[in-house]
Design a protein that fits this description.
Blueprint: E1 3-7, H1 15-27, E2 30-35, E3 39-44, E4 50-56, H2 64-75, E5 79-84, E6 87-93, H3 105-138, H4 143-148, H5 150-153, H6 158-195
Antiparallel strand pairs: 1-3, 2-3, 4-6, 5-6
Helix pairs in contact: 3-6
């Protein structure tokens, strides 16, 4: 079978964009068979044979709870194609009709909350990394630090500040997207309240 590898980056909050891209690839006859989250492996097949969906599970796919859920999905004709951490890539034959992993507002809200929690975790790591960079910059002149970091320091003291600045930009992006996800959750909650 003909294979194709594509390298592409999608952010956690853009999972719907990633789904659209995978479905566009499937419409052209390229079916996803594996991914690492940035490296996608496709096999050539019948155009439009599959539809793809993504989900961030509560736990890793190897846990008992997740394994039960994945067996349930398989029994429903939905195949797990790949997993990257807690992200799971599902597909279903297009001839079986459209499918949605989140059939009600509560499941959509729960999924967005898992994404928001993931973003909070990344934000925490970013803050710690920025603080460590700034602390390192503050100790650049210490003899023990110079001895340990000699090769890095040869690039200039500003390296620490540049890295901190890059991390700060990423932090701002993460916070903005976390707010965006939180707003989507609020909209869905309001919609749920109206329906009740």
């Amino acid at each position: 079978m003909n294979r194709k590898v594509v390298h592409k980056v999608f952010w956690a909050w853009g999972f719907e964009r990633e789904e659209r891209w995978l479905n566009d690839m499937a419409a052209c006859g390229w079916n996803l068979v594996d991914t690492t989250g940035v490296r996608y492996v496709f096999e050539q097949g019948t155009p439009g044979e599959y539809r793809y969906k993504l989900e961030l599970l509560e736990n890793l796919p190897s846990t008992a709870e997740s394994e039960r859920y994945l067996r349930f999905m398989e029994d429903a004709g939905i195949q797990q194609v790949a997993a990257c951490g807690r992200w799971v890539y599902f597909r279903r034959r297009a001839e079986d009709g459209p499918f949605d992993l989140f059939s009600d507002l509560d499941s959509r809200i729960a999924h967005l909350r898992r994404i928001r929690t993931l973003l909070f975790t990344v934000i925490g790591v970013e803050v710690i990394a920025i603080m460590l960079q700034l602390v390192a910059f503050g100790h650049v002149d210490a003899p023990a630090f110079k001895q340990a970091m000699g090769p890095v320091l040869s690039q200039g003291d500003a390296l620490f500040l540049v890295i901190a600045a890059i991390l700060l930009v990423l932090l701002v992006v993460m916070v903005a997207q976390t707010v965006r996800v939180a707003r989507r959750i609020d909209r869905l909650k309001k919609e749920r309240a109206i329906r009740e």
